[in-house]
Amino acid sequence: MTVTTVTATPPVVEEEKSLRQARPFLKRLRPSRVAVNVVLGAIALFWLVPTLSMMIISFRPAGLFEVSGWWKVFSAPSQLTLQNYKELFTGGSSTALGGGVPSGLAPGSVLDALRTSLEISIPATILVTLIASLTAYSIVFGRWRGRNAVFLTIVGLMVVPLQVALIPVASLYKDMGSAFGWNPFGTISGVVIFHVAFGLPFGIFLMRNFYTGIPTALIEAGRIDGAGEWTLFRRVVIPLGIAAAASLAIFQFIWVWNDLLVALVFLGGDPHVPLTLFLYDQERTLAANFWIISTGSMVSIVVPLIVFLAFQRHFVRGMLAGAVK
Amino acid sequence: MLLAIVVWPAIATIRYSFYNATATKAVGLSNYKSLFSTADTLIAFRNNVIWVLVFPFIVTVLGLVFAVLSERIRWATAFKTIIFLPIVFSVTASSLVFTQIFQLDPHVGVFNAIVQTVDDWFHSPGAYPLSAGQTAASLATSGVVPGPHGTLESSAAIRAGGTVQMGLTGVNPDILSVIGARQARVPTPVAGAVTGLVWRDFSISNPSNISGVLPGEDGFANLRLALLRSDGSTVATTTTDAFGRFVFSGVGAGPFRVQILASNFTSAFPGTFWLGPQSLTPTSNLSQTAQALLSVPLIDISEILAYLWIWAGFTMVIVAAGLAALDREALEAAHVDGATEWQTFRRVTIPMLAPVLTVVFVTMVINVLKIFDIVVNLGIDTSQPGGQSSTLASDVYYLGFGGGVHTGLASALAVMLFILVVPAMLFNLKRISGK
After folding, report:
1. For a designed S-S bond to A128, which of A174, A199, B328, B364 qualifies (C-beta 3.0 to 4.6 A apart)?
2. Residues 6+ apart with CB under 8 A from B138
3. pTM of model > 0.80
């Protein structure tokens, strides 16, 4: 009995082993695996079409736009030209289709819109990251009562639709104009202030989530050693939370960069408008300057694209931590 | 600052919502009454309902499918990046792309081009499709008369050894150049054969001259022709060359007529206007209010498709992170117990992912309740208050700031939006305070 068992065991083990080895090979060849690759390949191609088409349109002569589809470049690559991009600098008045758009950095041009977008996004990003970091520090490591209630209120504020604030803030801005002589309505500062206010709840939430990972003992030790709150924040919390701050900054930057509604309300009708509003206006002009819409779109997606590709990891992490906005 | 820009305005908006159009006089609940009784705002509600019912579900399922399937490929990172990219673009720019994709003209809009290609397999169009309202007969200019059933025929009878010239106008020169047509050439007569020319009998430099071939007049290339006996029976068929010339050789004595086949002029699929207000649901025998409420406009569907393109990457990434955090042992155990892939997915993966899927779903519900950018950008002509694709958020903007300002009504709409978002807010609070 014992003999048979002993002799019978090795072949079974052998068989299991060979099965285990064979499995990955078989798995690789399974038709379902091929099908998944093909299906996902098709989906990926399909997903690329819109971006690709806008890119190609921006490199084709404006006159061809109404005549034939962008996919014609595959049979006629000579259609590709840098003309549209040149006209960003020289103005489009020279072409039949693209008249009436100022050149270079003049108000109402693409490059001016690019600059305005930066003028809004950069301060809004820096302010949100800074204020949110400080507030989150105070909420996590501060020693005042009601911290938790404040935090929960902030979480609640995250989903407040910014539509509810537009009308009162617009009139608040105008009242400030008559009371202090400084009216942020129609100015870049007005847009930035609004973005900072609506970016803060998410920012504080995000930073707080990262800070709760920092051991309180570390801060307490610092306090016992006589470090002030500002020193603690600068020397301990910032170095530890820099990755979180980067996530927040990138998230906020892309959010503000892509905003249309706030710019539309506070800057509508102004000659200095950010790219989103510029494109929105261009689309509504009677003689749609398509060369400027396509190149403008490309210019508007290039900046967030670079930011995203450079900091992909941070962006995704910020989004995962948030997942609520 | 939060108090000044977020909390106080929210309260002020509630106060405004009980005031009149210029926020000067309290009007009680009348704004809310008109909110639920005027067709304009009811359409906005209807569109929000369509969005909330359709979008969050589909985008969550798409995200789940993409996340699960991408675990089985080696190029998952590349795949995820491609799907995710649209989220970093502004909705405005993406809308512009989709405005092009949904263009009416199949020569410009990809979507209609695809429909047209499929349609062409069933009814193949001619080389010279007529534009809307144009007939083949209207093309006849010199030496050509309209024939039966949309054909064109040579006006004079012809015998072997003879040459016939047939001039047409009314065809876009771009079509000719795409086909590769060259300057028309009159063929030399061939004994025993019927020869001839079909050409565009219109010269920019000499528009009034309609006899004879002038410089700048192109031949009709690739035109399908038939040689007919006087009783109408077909003797032979042929196709013109790049110069518009044709030869029927060895055909006997005649007399004959040369016919230009109707199939040369068949129109292609003209394109569907995907960005229009046409309803998908048949509502013709209903009252106007009911029609406004029950129709599902095409523009909504197009907007939802474009928005799926934008947001599927977001749901995919969140679900993928959830998948990565799953307990692999449970999945392995299911495999060992002999569960099929589908059973494992259905009975183990989905229940384990349920919390993540709920978060994604709620996030998307909040997102589409506030849907604005895509609505005003894709539906330029249909997003005004009362337009077929208007939503609560777009009405708040238009009534609050863009023409026809009515502060009270806009505020009441904003308050409605806020109330609709409250359940999601409570969900978040519960989830976060539970942690």
Report:
1. A199
2. B170
3. no
Among B222, B226, B216, smallest CA distance to B128 is for B222
A16 interfaces chain B, CB cutoff of 8 Å: no
Q: In what order do the strands lie in the sheet containing B152-154?
A: B144-146, B152-154, B256-260, B224-229, B234-239
Q: Is omega for the bond preceding B255 within 30 degrees of 0, making it cis? A: yes
What six digits make up the tokens of B54? 């359709």
pLDDT at A129: 92
- pLDDT tens by residue, A83-118: 777 777 765 544 444 445 666 666 677 888 888 899
ipTM above 0.90, yes or no: no
Give the strand pairing for B256-260 and B152-154: antiparallel
Nearest chain A alpha carbon to B74: A37
Can you state the angle between helices B350-369 and B298-324, rounded to 10 degrees?
Answer: 140
Higher pLDDT: B212 or B75? It is: B75
Integer angstrom CA distances of residue B137 from A255, B88, B125, B173 = 58, 54, 18, 18
Considering chain B, what is the average pLDDT of its residues? Answer: 80
Beta strand ranges found along B230-351 (DSSP E): 234-239, 245-249, 256-260
- Contact criterion met (CB < 8 Å) for B9 and A324: no
Cβ distance of B396 and A163 shorter than 8 Å = yes
Q: Measured at the alpha carbon of residue B193, what is the angle toward residues B190 and B198, in degrees to the nearest 5?
A: 85
The shortest CB-CB distance from B5 to any of A44, A169, A265 is to A169
Please return the burial class of B124, using the count of CB atoms within 10 Å of its CB with bins 0-12, 13-18 and 19+: exposed
Per-window interface: B 340-359 vs A, CB < 8 A? 341, 359
Q: Are B9 and B1 in contact (CB under 8 A)?
A: no
Contacts of B72 in chain A (CB under 8 A): 33, 36
Mark yes or no for CB contact A268/B432 under 8 Å. Answer: no
The B193-200 sheet, strands edge to edge? B140-142, B163-168, B193-200, B245-249
Query: What's at B45, amino acid-wise?
Result: F
Inter-chain contact A161–B359, Cβ cutoff 8 Å?
Answer: no
